[in-house]
Amino acid sequence: MSIRLIPTRYSTRSSFTSSLKTFTQSQVIIYRQFHDTPNTQNTATQQSFQNDPNHMIPTNVPKGVNLTTPTPASPLSVSAGLKHPGKKVAPNEFLKAFNNKELISFLMMGLCTLNSATLKLCIKLFPYVPMAVIKALVYRIYCGGETLDEVKQAGLRLHERGINNMMISLTIEACDGNDNVDPEYIIDETVKSINGILEPHTKKMIETCDKNINDIPSGYVALKPTGFVKNAANVLKNYNNGEEAAFAELVAKASRACEAVYEANQRLAKQYPDRTAPFVVAVIDAEKYELQPGVYELQRQLYKKFNKLNEPCYVVGTLQMYLSDSASLLAKEERLAQENNYRIGLKLVRGAYIHSEKDRATIIHKTKQDTDDNYNAGITYCIDSILNQKDKESTIGHLVVASHNADSLKLASTKVYTQENATNINKSNVVLGQLLGMADHITYDLIKNYQIGNVIKYVPWGPPLETKQYLLRRLEENGDTVRNDNGWPLVKATFNTLMGRLFNKTSA
């Protein structure tokens, strides 16, 4: 992969919005030479470049940009950072990393996503399917389990695939109302998961690392604001208009989890003083747009309490870059942090609730291309801020690139993994994340073929009923991505892999 960007160094750090404008008006050319990164919206562009001898296909090119071949001396070329695989790898080689039960689960998902109509039918029928059937067929590739021990084992399975940490998430929330939510139980279980899963798992990964201690990504715990207080949706909507006391309770609950994260970092820092990045990080998950003002205020209060100047960022907040106001919001968050003397960590996502937002016509970008440009500009700005700092001086101190988009993940990797950054201790504060069971071919490509080590998976866990609801939301919100990744090609690939194993075993 070769990426050429106009070199940018932010000196004023005052406005991400102006940086976004510069980014989208620059001559930005993103080339691709990966076998497994289809981009269906660029079919015409792909066809026009079929004769390219290196199969480099321009994607995500802003209107008016002149398409020219980048110079070989580009500082962000493959030779400057990413090690190009010596030979072309089969698109479905990633399946070899999964056991037979997991392959059967992939086969079932392939059948469920053969086409749009089949996917819609499966979504309608899903609530009526017994949990026992779901657990037997697809649960294992999308969920970490029901208990702490099961999630630990899921982490070790990820390690076998070269994924050395994870973002665990207790899947109990109430964005649409849930009378069964018990905030005390949720926070207790969350603290247990920090102490019983993340801390020992991160320690184990560090002890098994034969390279730099900072090569191991941080471990993350996702905190869902709608699970920390009764009637959470109303509390978040009216956090400064009649629900101040309940909102303070929500902040206190979230602070207990963040305190557990902070204490885990202090313990591990005594054992591994050479570590630059945080060992464990708390991530505030996003909610629906109408709840976000309350979530943003929650994030700010936690930032101020736990993300001190000249220290690692222990709390990360989420920005949904499909929202049309996300660029100005990023600039606002950075300004508030500077004014109030704290640092911010960010998880940038394209948007988790795009299919369920009420006012999509007014709150999100008009086109997917606009969203992609906004997202790539956002991660570029944050990565530059992190890499160009000297000693925890940047207001933006940590970034999770949460995406299933191959171009964005490889853009981020190519910016981080360069010769110039080979000894940059700040690069460990940039991490790539995808949902468990999704974009596995891209994850495999990054890890196995390009030696990218800063990859994690989002691992949901918890009671069967709640994880079933999580799986349904994934089909509803990420159905298009699932269908693009799976469908008939996945059915054939998994079947062939299973048959190959069967006949090899028989012949042996």
UniProtKB/TrEMBL annotation:
It holds the Pfam family Pro_dh. Signal peptide: none annotated. Its EC number is 1.5.5.2. Gene3D superfamilies: 3.20.20.220. It is an enzyme of class 1 (oxidoreductase). Keywords: FAD, Flavoprotein, Oxidoreductase, Proline metabolism. It comes from the Eukaryota. Residues 221-481 form the Proline dehydrogenase domain. GO terms for molecular function: FAD binding; proline dehydrogenase activity. GO terms for cellular component: mitochondrion. GO terms for biological process: L-proline catabolic process to L-glutamate. Its cofactor is FAD. The keyword Cell membrane does not apply. InterPro entries: FAD-linked_oxidoreductase-like, Proline_DH_dom, Proline_oxidase. It catalyses: L-proline + a quinone = (S)-1-pyrroline-5-carboxylate + a quinol + H(+). Converts proline to delta-1-pyrroline-5-carboxylate. Belongs to the proline oxidase family. This is Proline dehydrogenase. It comes from Candida metapsilosis. The lineage of its organism: Eukaryota, Fungi, Dikarya, Ascomycota, Saccharomycotina.
